[in-house]
What we know:
Elements (H helix, E strand, L loop, with lengths): L5 H35 L9 H12 L3 H7 L5 H15 L15 H13 L5 H10 L6 H10 L5 H4 L5 H11 L2 E13 L2 E12 L5 E7 L4 H11 L12 E4 L7 H9 L3 E4 L9 H13 L9 H17 L24 E6 L4 E6 L3
Parallel strand pairs: 1-4, 4-5
Antiparallel strand pairs: 1-2, 2-3, 6-7
Amino acid sequence: MENLSPALQFLLLFFAGWVNRKQQDSIDYLKEENRILLKRLEGHSLRLTNDERRRLAVKGKALDRKDLNELAGIVKPETILAWYRNLVGKKYDGSANRSPGRPKTSKEIADLVVMMSLDNPGWGYTTIRNALRNIGHEIGRTTVKRILLDHGIEPAPERKRKTTWKSFLKIHMEAGTIAAMDFFTVEVLTLKGLVCFKVLFVIDLATRRVHIAGISNQVHEEWMKQMVRNLTDAFDGFLLDMRYLIMDRDPLFTLAFRKMLSDSGVKPIRLPAHSPNLNSYAERFVLSIKSECLDRMIPLGESHLRRAVAEYVRYYNHERFHQGLDGQLIEPDETAGRTEGRVECRERLGGMLNYYYREAA
């Protein structure tokens, strides 16, 4: 500036002052605009993204608290400074490089420990550890113990004294010696109006084969006793080879009814009260016959109901593909599996139930 002529110095000072005034005018305008916008936002919170917070934090750090008090309106100055401190803290955060200590047991191993303990009630911590070692997983007894405690599973001495319902069914289903019995009701339209009929059925849990024991609108103890005689007949009784029969606590399963079963060599197993899903196979059959047949028709009299139930059971046992049996038929006939010949359709109940097969060549 000293080497410049007075005239040039004057021009530079004039220009600097002009620029300063323009900047101040711009700042004043932005401040006023900011006040107006904040007035409009009164009572409403403004959500900022993480990127917007970072940008404000960096810019706000360059200003002192007085300037921030004059300029900042969206958030308080303390908030901007706190964001900046958080930004600096993240830069020097070394938690990602810290050692986590002893590695956590993987979910795969934990699931195997739980599965082995439930499938083998007599296995203790050491046996489970050895079984895992045999398949390539090396963990200690205390780890096995901790996993079982975390899942609420008792030690082996307590577990092996108890037989779960699932284990009981699995053991006897494989032997083909356990069946389940239950009722379902159907409202039938008759000349006297709607009449409620009870359908008594039995299902073989191993094969899923269903047998209709009886249908009546007047079910009583003597009728139930006759059903036992039919089911345990020495020549063609459905329960002839069964050792156990599951039933709920329906009053119709009387003491006399259960004694007749026991005398014929079939032990009745009564389910605990208020225990859903313990007779799931029987309940699933009821859902199937109602949703696929009975709910789609109006039974007109007892004979119509009997015909519909009989047709559905034939379809269920011989022509229906069961998800629980990996899509297989329970009792396939000679038409099953043919790959040559003309495709035919066997209709039941007017085409409500259909079975497709190939005619013999």
